[in-house]
Fold this protein.
Amino acid sequence: RTAVRQARGLIAERLDEGRMRGVRNVWRRFSKTCFGFDLPRELVHALNGVDFNVKKGMVGILGPNGAGKTTLLRQLAGVLEPSLGTISIGGVRLARLRRYLARWVGYLPQDFGLPNEMTAREYLDYYALLYEIGPEEEREARVGKLLKEVGLGQRADEKIGSFSGGMRQRVAVARTLLRLPPVIIVDEPTVGLDPRERIRFRNLLSRLAEGRVVLFSTHVVEDVEVACERVIVLARGRVVFDGLPSDLALEARGKVWVTHLEPGEEASLAQGAMVVDQVPEASGTVRTRVLHAAAPHDAAEAVSPTLEDGYLWLVGEPA
């Protein structure tokens, strides 16, 4: 009965609160595993036909929410197993490297936990011990160097709980770098950061990309435009673009239009036109930027595309 109710979506697979939730969660996992083999399940194709190679530099993986970015990065980091296909690092299949993967790949997930009561130095030293980095002199030197590299050398002995969101991100990056991995994977690193911290964090990733492969996912076009040498756009689980950021804008060439409309006149635009920007003007009209294969309005004028225009044209939805 428990397995059937889970398959139908009537109850969640995991409880986060409530009495005896630990025992109940164990029972639900047991029921799903042992009695759910023949129950109908809805298959989700998070990724389909994704194929690319990366040799060096910083690569941005751009896409709207739900495009499959996090699923892709988790597979590259060895957290998830692909149902089909293979992933290789240095020509060796990831499955053969799994036992040693943490030495080659540093992964910073979107949600990471940091202990508020520890200082940045204590936290990194603790992980350095777990990673068996030694002897003590080498461990202390590496921790100190990493803290300076991420811009926290002056605040290394302050508690993490007093840090801003961007500083906490940098502590997590330093932890990811403890083993000096040649591949760094970062999921949505600039979410929730103010503009100053976003710029600082992008610059940090750019420095790390020298001599390494850095993959980071985002849905902020500006992050890719400023920092990346290459961009991969995911939409509905597929790669729809793979190339230089400057070439991404060309995807919308001849498809970007600007027109001045009266309030409420958007209905006069051609069917299928995508409104990407609207700015009220002193004259009372609204300056409207539109994506469409042909002129969407009699008064529309063609303009040069931006990186964001190319991205929106490919993913098929406004920002």
